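Good morning C.,

I know you're traveling, so I'll keep this short. The sequence:
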Amino acid sequence: MRFPRNAKIFRGQLDAAPFAGFFFVLLILFLLNFRMALTPGVAINLPQVSSDLPGVANAILLVAIDANGQFYYENQSISEDRLLERLQTAVQSSSEPLTLVIQSDARAKVDFTTRLLSVAPRLGIERAHFFIAPASRLPQAPAPPEKQK
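The tokens, ready to paste straight into the viewer:
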């Protein structure tokens, strides 16, 4: 038994309008998707320093402080009392000396950072460093004029 074929091979020109429409719809969706994607975590704007600072060689304890003075340890919001307990247990369980690295928002009050720094030696933390933005973000200051002899 033979079936009649109704399908014919397309031999004309392709219409560009549907492809262009589909392309622009995809473009709009991708642009909106990138704009609406939220970055997880808390935004902390680090202060910027133009000098080169040394890194840390040994293990670190990383504490972040946002602009409102909220402390963050191990990617979790934590109260100050609980933070001190967690730092104490981390120091006791470590066999090597630890360094406290503080990521403090540039708009945060200095009081939050100084309280943490003043307690660190009593917890057994020998060194503390501030985490700052890289110097490459800063504009270069002009060189001072040279003195005439």
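Safe travels,
E.
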